[in-house]
Design goal:
By secondary structure, the chain is mainly beta. The protein contains twelve helices and 43 strands. Strand 22 and strand 23 form a beta hairpin. The longest helix is centred in the last third of the chain and has 11 residues.
């Protein structure tokens, strides 16, 4: 049972590989010798010790402000998600509200949010910082997420983004298992900067408007910068692209053998002891048994064209950065930012399921209702009884009706995010060495409200289908049997309601840091850093009281609230061993350790050891061993009961997709589990209800990360005139995560019960009298382990200036060498490399790469072409259990910028086209919605944009 143009634009990625592999890379020494002196020391993500950025000990990709502006994208998360080392995450192409329910992690749907996921380890294992400090987690009024909504940070507030592609728990604490994204905001600016951009798909939809303005003043001891931003993105409907017109790729009718359409039909489906029926002559205000006919596959509802491929959103942002020099050694810095997001998800009309086999689960009242014989619209002449205590024997399975008359389900989110930071920093001298200190206090709040139209109340439906004597004004009897058009506005006014949910996350963070040099060794000074952090995180999710009472027709949910505090101390040391010796131009060892004490999940100590060796000045080798951990999130600990509608094949069904008719062992085990022996339970593949909830007894996840890398950036290439920039870098990573938090795989639960007769697995499933799955237990546990290995490669070349300009080539690629998930306490081992997981959507291509060719002339004209390649993956088609190949895709993006000299190069005019070859995503059967994976592939269609920018 399923639950179901003008070519202008603003989301180009024509220079993604430039900023992913150009002079903005901190992990590649791409600065010229004149640009980077050996004496220059700064703090770069991946270390708390000030160092020469050319000797960076970890693989860090840095995207600067001009590079971000060059992409044409209106969301920083969209830019980050296209790095080959990234693996997608939530974005505005995800439209899950009302379609899948709440994922089994307590985080909710996250509608309208945008995340960054490194190394396919999920966004909750990538730590997001702002100016080296934590940022409040996002929320969309459907749960308590464990991730930051990057869309909450105004794009023009960002000076650069540093992406550490390695584990860093000893330096930054929990969550930094896959890596760290450190967003550095604008600290100083002189004059005005402004830009306006507009774009759209060639089909005439998905219009995007982006406007930014900022102004800064810099004095001798005081500087202040303030800015504002506005982004508006219009939707792309699934009805306007061929790939998403039906529930399955290539489908043309609900009668097709592939199935997939919903049994909650517009004219109803009535599965009773009288048969499997629907109404024959809709709309019918006086339905009778004689007017019913057999229900056919063609009667099912096609929900495909009623979704979004690109969800609409609107964001307003404002920010301030202030610095005051108190003395020549002490500074006060204050930063604040506010962002409001208005966003929307949309789903097909409410599928109302009533009856003991309805599968609403979580104690829903709808699973217990009966249709009284006295109801004027009951065509059967007898009470349809759910067979509950005190009721007559059960004589119907379920009544399903698509409530088209109520309009589409619409989920509107209003999300406010406020963050403020105050910092005192300074320096002093000890024994001839400069020591640096800073003290920080941070407050962040994310407050979300969601309204959902199209839901109905179970208590009022019960009254409207119950004994007519109990349905007196204002109650209006409900006609669920008369087909499309038979439900009147008066009926809807009685049963319908607007669901209103809200959620809130708060962060209080206080840190102290001290760093400097201790003593001088022959190879250089010994550097150190120490620090302390006290952090408090608190959150709540409050669903509509009608929903929390179990009276809503859509996804059930229960309130959740929790908080914890943590105290942490860390230390880091850098020891140079050799310098300018034969085969040892430099040799250095680094180490760090961090101890964390959580008020709920206990204590943890992590450490890292790193070695750097330069046999010659132009060649760097490095290696690191790091342990890490991730404390359970508030949603994972305290998440209330809810439901996730997961596409699952039930082996106990008599449908050809099951094993009941062909396997005697399965048949015997399924009968023992409550499936009727006569084979009458014959539902085709669809969504089954997984009941999700948090677990206060969860323990922290642990990890081990090994990295090896090499960087070659020869001075001879720059000094000889061969290149202005030339570098090659390769990094190998090996990550193992243990005690990963997850629920038992529902597919495994069903198969272990059916194939093995495993009592524990059978106990996790609740079946009705007719064999339907009413609930599958999805309580979170420390069950899984993950092992992934891969290789990153970056190559960069740029010619010197010539009479016809300069040319550049940038390549950034990642090979996934291994990805193995040992799930459900080792009962199942999945090799994800080269596969598409399906719901929740995630592709694991063996290779992803970006390459850019660009040309510029006299700082006046610049042009570029970027190619983005995604290797093919294989999915298991849930309709037949056979492999299906999702072939590789190549996207091309072009961009042209003109910066006229007659305007002192202050104005820039840019046009560009994303997906210039009009490449469609590969069709996907196992994906949750719209027949493609939105975490990996672009929305179908060419997208063009035009932008004007000004810089004083």
């Amino acid at each position: 049972m399923n639950r179901p143009a003008t070519l202008l634009g603003g989301t180009a990625l024509a220079v993604l590989s430039i900023f992913a592999a150009c002079p903005t890379f901190a992990q590649v020494p791409v600065q010229t010798a004149a640009d980077a002196s050996p004496q220059e020391t700064i703090v770069v993500t991946g270390s708390r010790i000030r160092r020469n950025p050319l000797d960076q000990s970890s693989p860090v990709v840095t995207l600067d402000q001009s590079s971000l502006a060059q992409t044409g994208l209106t969301s920083v998360a969209d830019i980050l998600q296209r790095l080959p080392s990234a693996s997608g995450g939530l974005n505005t192409k995800v439209n899950n509200s009302g379609n899948l329910g709440n994922p089994p992690d307590g985080g909710g749907v996250g509608a309208g949010s945008a995340e960054i996921d490194l190394r396919y380890l999920s966004a909750k294992r990538t730590l997001v910082l702002v100016d080296g400090l934590r940022f409040v987690n996002g929320t969309s009024a459907s749960g308590i997420p464990a991730t930051v909504d990057i869309n909450a940070i105004p794009a023009n507030m960002i000076e650069r983004v540093e992406v550490l592609q390695a584990g860093a728990s000893p330096l930054y604490g929990s969550d930094a298992i896959a890596g760290v994204v450190n967003i550095i905001t604008v600290a100083e600016q002189e004059g005005l900067r402004a830009s306006v951009q507009y774009g759209a798909f060639r089909q005439g939809d998905g219009d995007t408007f982006d406007a930014n303005i900022s102004y800064g003043v810099k004095g001798e001891t005081t500087s202040v910068v303030f800015g504002a931003s506005y982004v508006k993105q219009d939707p792309v409907s699934s009805a306007d692209r061929p790939i998403s017109l039906f529930p399955n790729p290539g489908q043309t009718s609900c009668a097709d053998a592939v199935g997939g359409c919903s049994s909650a039909a517009v004219n109803g489906r009535f599965l009773t002891d009288f048969g499997n029926q629907t109404i024959s002559n809709p709309p019918d205000s006086t339905p009778t048994l004689a007017e019913l006919r057999p229900f056919l596959a063609s009667d099912r509802f096609n929900f495909g064209p009623f979704n979004y491929l690109l969800t609409p959103s609107e964001r307003y942002g404002a920010w301030l950065s202030f610095r005051q020099e108190l003395t020549d050694k002490i500074n006060l810095r204050v930063k604040a930012q506010y962002n409001r997001r208005n966003s929307q998800n949309k789903a097909a009309f409410e599928p109302l399921f009533i009856g003991p086999d309805a599968g609403n689960g979580a104690g829903s009242l709808f699973d217990t209702l009966s249709f009284d014989a006295t109801n004027p619209f009951n065509p059967f002449g007898v009470t349809l009884s759910a067979g509950r205590p005190g009721q007559p024997d059960q004589n119907y399975s379920f009544i399903a009706r698509r409530l088209v008359e109520a309009g589409q389900r619409t989920f509107n989110q209003t999300v406010d995010t406020l963050s403020a930071t105050a910092t005192l920093d300074g320096s002093f001298t000890v024994g001839g060495h400069d020591w640096y200190w800073d003290a920080n206090a941070l407050f962040g709040i994310n407050d979300a409200h969601q309204s959902f139209t199209g839901n109905v109340r179970a208590d009022r439906v019960a009254q409207a289908i119950g004994p007519i004597a109990n349905c007196t004004a204002p109650c209006v009897p409900l006609n669920l049997f008369g087909g499309l058009g038979s439900i009147t506005p008066e009926m809807l006014n009685w049963i319908g309601f607007t669901e209103r949910d809200r959620s809130n996350q708060r962060l209080y963070d206080y840190t102290l840091n001290l760093s400097g040099n201790l003593i001088d060794l022959p190879a250089g000074p010994v550097g150190f850093a120490v620090g302390y952090e006290h952090r408090v995180q608190a959150a709540y999710f409050i669903p509509d009281p009608i929903v929390s009472a179990g009276l809503g027709a859509d996804i059930p949910a229960q309130p959740a609230a929790g908080r914890y505090n943590v105290d942490e101390v860390y230390g880091e040391v850098r020891v140079p061993l050799l310098k300018e010796k034969p085969f040892f131009y430099s040799l250095e060892v680094d180490g760090a350790i961090r101890h964390s004490s959580y008020s709920i999940s206990g204590q943890s100590t992590t450490y890292t050891a790193t070695g750097l060796w330069k046999p010659i000045e132009d060649l760097l080798f490095r290696g690191a061993y790091t342990t890490g951990f991730r404390a359970p999130s508030l949603g994972e600990l305290f998440g209330g009961r809810s439901r996730f509608d997961l596409p699952v094949v039930d082996p106990c069904t008599s449908d050809p997709s099951g094993l009941f008719q062909t396997n005697a062992t399965v048949r015997a085990n399924c009968i023992a589990d409550g499936v009727p022996a006569d084979g009458s339970y014959a539902e085709p593949p669809g969504q089954l209800p997984v009941i999700t909830q948090g677990n206060i007894n969860l323990k922290p996840e642990t990890s081990r990360n090994i990295t090896f890398g090499a960087v070659y950036a020869p001075l001879w290439a720059r000094n000889s005139g061969f290149a202005s920039t030339f570098s090659i870098e390769a990094n190998y990573y090996d990550i193992r995560v243990k005690k990963a938090i997850g629920a038992v795989d529902p597919n495994l639960t069903l198969r272990n019960c059916a194939l093995l007769g495993d009592a524990a697995s059978c106990a996790l499933t609740v079946r009705t009298r007719n064999g339907f799955v009413n609930e599958i237990d999805g309580t979170l546990q420390n069950l899984d382990s993950i092992r992934t290995e891969g290789l990153d490669l970056t190559a960069l070349y740029r010619t010197p200036e010539t009479g016809v300009g300069s040319f550049g080539l940038a390549v950034n690629a990642t090979w996934l060498l291994k990805y193995v998930l040992s799930a459900s306490n080792g009962f199942v081992v999945l090799d994800r490399k080269g596969t598409e997981r399906g719901s929740p959507d995630q592709a694991f291509p063996k290779f992803k790469g970006n390459a850019t060719i660009d040309w510029s002339l006299n700082d006046t004209i610049a042009a570029s072409f970027t190619g983005r390649y995604i290797d093919g993956v294989t999915e298991i088609n849930p309709n037949d259990g056979l492999p299906n190949r999702l072939h590789s895709r190549f996207y091309g993006d072009v961009q042209l910028t003109f910066t006229p000299g007659f305007a002192q190069h202050r104005f820039a005019f840019t046009i560009g086209v994303n997906n210039v070859f009009d490449t469609d995503p590969p069709p996907c059967f196992s994906c949750s919605l719209n027949n493609f994976d939105p975490t990996t592939y672009d929305v179908p269609g060419q997208f063009g944009y035009a932008r004007i920018s000004y810089k004083m």
